[in-house]
């Protein structure tokens, strides 16, 4: 199976052939996936070098001319380092585009903390009007990328990861999917967290919602799940900073007495390289840890 990044390069290259309004902007990272596309469209595949602020600024400039830019690099260099440009060159100028990240929270531990961005979605929450997609499988990444590319002038952030679920789900770019129904509580699994959540809750009487579009937050689906079980205990399992969506869940349930447990990447920096499974375990996001934490919160463990 190809990775999400490989699928992104292939799909974005095809989209360039199909839609003359699209342009891809890179900052060295990922350029090898666009060699053929750059030969076909030298004016719409732009590599600005290791200049991340310029990367986002060029994307915003293209949007001002009526283009639909697809801007790509690691999350730490796409959201954190040039955040002022994201805020001003897209938000303040009132233009849209598609920001596509890789690296995520712990995809490349050997790269160190400079190449990790567990706070990216929380940071995007400080800005207005952004849609955030977090696919859990390359097929979902393709569907959500196509959805984002065709989304008029909307501002969209697509967060890719090396971690994937075994099977794709039919995502539509808006709603949560109900994968299991139960009475003891509701667990929302975001993107690549799904398989570990399903394994952790296999013998628990819980509802499992699958979220690949986390902003806007599908409060209606959460309210329906809570209402259907009669329980207002909610666990959020996210592949980025723990608690990122806790406020959104609380707002969705403001008319219902509830408890929310936000699980995700811990704030404490891990200073050993290790590998992805080691980082998942250290953050309590492997199946065994999730079983203990979810079961303890819901009283089913």
Query: What's the end-to-end separation, in Å?
Result: 35 Å
Structural class: alpha/beta
Written as H for each helix and E for each strand, in order along the chain, the element string is HEHEHEHHEHEHEEEHEEHEHEHH
Tell me the helix content: 25-40%
Indicate the radius of gyration in whole angstroms.
Answer: 19 Å
CATH superfamily of the largest domain: Thiamin diphosphate (ThDP)-binding fold, Pyr/PP domains
* Strand order, largest beta sheet: 2-1-3-4-6-5-10
> Total helix count?
12
- Can you tell me the CATH topology of the largest domain? Rossmann fold
Please report the total strand number as a whole number: 12
Question: What are the segments in which pLDDT stays under 50 over at least 5 consecutive residues?
Answer: none
What coarse outline follows from CA principal-axis ratios? globular
| Overall number of structural domains | 2
Q: Mean pLDDT across all residues, rounded?
A: 96
Residue share in β-strands: 15-25%
